[in-house]
Design goal:
about 150 residues; mainly beta; 1 helix; globular
Length: about 150
């Protein structure tokens, strides 16, 4: 067995998948990351996906995590998180004065960028769902997205 020396990494170019069994796997945030995640070539159903994403435009879709909560931490910038509930939409602001929020499991949500910046996401991946903003049955909104 060979051992590898510990090394630091850039969270803007590398996601970290924290598996339920305790293993931490580095995943390059390259051009293939999102397509591979969407089609199942990257399987994050048994743990937590952690990543830092530059947020320069509003999210291009709604998302929901039915199996777990999600930690959102604004490293810079200012954002509104739009959430759906039975009573309509609710908004929570993330900025330097209140940078962290825990998204309740099962809540449809999206980001609106007030000031571009970076957000740390810690997401329990199992069962994550997405839907387009123009879904007339459940809200609508802006078009663009997370890089």
């Amino acid at each position: 067995m060979t051992s590898q020396a510990p090394r630091s990494f850039d969270p803007l170019t590398t996601a970290l998948y924290l598996e339920d069994g305790g293993r931490a796997q580095a995943l390059p945030l390259d051009a293939d990351f999102w397509p591979a995640l969407a089609d199942g070539r990257i399987d994050v159903d048994r743990g937590w996906l952690t990543m830092v994403a530059p947020m320069r435009a509003d999210m291009a879709h709604w998302e929901m995590h039915p199996e777990g909560e999600e930690l959102l931490l604004a490293r810079s910038g200012a954002f509104e998180i739009v959430m759906e509930s039975g009573e309509g939409e609710h908004r929570v602001r993330l900025d330097r004065d209140a940078p962290a929020f825990v998204m309740p499991r099962g809540t449809w949500h999206r980001f609106v960028v007030l000031e571009p910046g970076e957000v740390l996401f810690v997401t329990y991946g199992r069962g994550t769902q997405h839907r387009p903003l123009e879904d007339a049955t459940r809200g609508g909104g802006d078009a663009a997205g997370m890089e």
